[in-house]
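My hope is that you will study the record closing this message with an eye to the fold:
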Amino acid sequence: MLQLNFSSFPILETERLILRSHTNEDAEALFALRNNEDVMRFIHRERQKTVAEIENFISNFNDGCNQGQHLAWVIALKQNPSQMIGSIGYWRTNLVNYRAEIGYMLHPNYWRKGIISEALNKTIDFGFAEMNLHSIQANIDPENDASRQILLKHGFVKEAYFKEDFYFQGKFLDSEIYSLLESNVKWKR
């Protein structure tokens, strides 16, 4: 069975980005992200109502990271590593099957600049090389064409389309599932 045990939180770097752990200093930025209508348009999750709730969310999230349940990073520009502009990570880790679900969000000021693509490259590589994942999946709202296109660009393939499988705010919503197998990664080490 897969185990996620890191002696310290793995900080990742790309040409422009630093991917680091969440801290309470990120609470205001995360609160703003998770309450931004554009950001959350296709992310069907309950929104925290206060910064204190976000601080509790960060604490619970970090506890889960320390217990090897998931792993996620703050996305920040190297030129300003303390300013959170987004997040990316593995949220639902299926340890028995060496599979994890990747998710991401980015502040609209940074959309269409290749930032998610750059962060995805690094986290996918880390997922297969360091976490020993066999597959990575993504669950998207079928209306989210931008997310679909970025997944396809990175080699993900559509695995499933579920009709009304998710209940959120009084509605049944559809889901589209994409996956990437380690054996299909074109840019292997």
